[in-house]
Specification:
Layout (H helix, E strand, L loop, with lengths): L2 H14 L18 E5 L6 H17 L3 E5 L6 H9 L6 E6 H10 L7 H4 E16 L8 H10 L5 E4 L5 H13 L4 E4 L3 H9 L5 E5 H9 L4 E5 L26 E9 L4 H15 L2 H9 L3 E2 L4 H22 L5
Parallel strand pairs: 1-2, 1-3, 5-6, 5-7
Antiparallel strand pairs: 3-9, 4-7, 4-8, 4-9, 4-10
Helix pairs in contact: 2-10, 4-12, 7-12
Length: 328
């Protein structure tokens, strides 16, 4: 009997016994085909640019092309849904982020996947704050003045985010609860339209990622009111943190991106991916590009990323419950 035939017979016997076939030993992957990296966001957005940078570097280290598959829609839920249904063979990756991974299930009963069970975390890629920006002419130049203005005009000021149940939305709900003010939420589908409408005065305040907000603030096209991180951002050091406002002391909420694979992906593949991702995130050119966009490159292991996700979800759940947030 040939070696190939003996291997096939052995594999068939394992399958008949209900055992998994160890088809992907660490030395066998990746050799079969290009790797697909699903991005649950439109091309050109913050998550997409991060994914393209990381995907290119991973492809170089793995000596296998990494192809970006943009699957936008439903705040990232469509892309994650596609990833959880993909074959767990090491050839489908997901660049996930806070909204569809940790928040979507908390606010929308229509979300059918369970990210904790249906995905395996590989590693944290970035952590980045959100920036609150004001339209031109708004008589508020920081969060203290915004709170005072909102108290004088309850329910009249509007703010834009990339959707109900996103981290950007949750951050503003916390602000309103702590400051005891009422703003009107205007959900959008992406940062580009938010930027345009805040600049045009259609909405009073926009919640933007640092990648989108930083150049607008530097060029003085928008005024930064505050950043949601515990520390100021070097690129826009003149913009205070939310926590510098007395009512918001200790405020620290950030967006994040991370690499995932479908559940049941062989452990050897997860370990190899985590090792290569860690090496990529330590590259000086990668760190500079991420930091220039206001993000902090991730570190750690799949285990530490898993613990990070659990802690984040607990915090999100508390905010969602307190604010009574539900998808529309």
């Amino acid at each position: 009997m040939s070696t190939l035939r003996r291997s096939l017979v052995a594999a068939a016997a394992l399958m008949a016994a209900g055992l998994s076939v160890p088809a992907l030993a660490s030395g066998d992957w990746p050799t079969v085909k290009p790797i697909t990296l699903i991005v649950p966001f439109s091309a050109g957005g913050n998550v997409d640019t991060t994914a393209r940078l990381i995907g290119q570097k991973l492809g170089e280290r793995l000596k296998q092309p990494v192809v970006i598959d943009n699957v936008p829609g439903a705040g990232g839920v469509l892309g994650v849904s596609k990833a959880v249904k993909a074959s767990a063979d090491g050839y489908t990756l997901l660049m996930g982020f806070d909204g569809p991974i940790s928040i979507a299930q908390l606010v929308n009963s229509a979300v059918k996947y369970d990210a904790e069970k249906d995905l395996t975390p590989v590693g944290l890629v970035t952590i980045a704050p959100v920036v609150a920006v004001a339209r031109p002419g708004l008589p508020a130049h920081n969060l203290n003045e915004l709170i005072a203005l909102a108290r004088s005009k309850p329910g009249s000021l509007t703010y834009a985010t990339s959707g109900v149940g996103t981290m950007l939305h949750l951050a503003m709900e916390v602000l309103q609860e702590r400051a005891k003010i009422k703003l009107v939420h205007v959900p959008y589908r992406g940062g580009a339209q938010i930027t345009s409408d805040v600049m045009g005065g259609q909405v009073d305040i926009g919640m933007l990622t640092t990648t989108s907000a930083t150049p607008m603030i530097q060029q003085k096209k928008l005024e930064g009111l505050g950043v949601t991180s515990a520390k100021r951002i070097d690129a826009i050091a003149g913009v205070p943190t939310f926590g510098e406002t007395p009512e918001l002391k200790g405020f620290d909420l950030n967006t994040w991106t991370g690499l995932f694979v479908p559940a049941k992906t062989p452990q050897a593949v997860v370990t190899r991916l985590a090792t290569e991702l860690d090496a990529v995130l330590k590259m000086p050119d990668v760190r500079k590009r991420l930091e220039d966009g206001g993000a902090t490159p991730g570190t750690g292991t799949p285990a530490s990323f898993t613990q990070f996700l659990k802690k984040e979800k607990v915090g999100y759940a508390q905010i969602v419950k307190s604010a009574g947030i539900q998808a529309e």
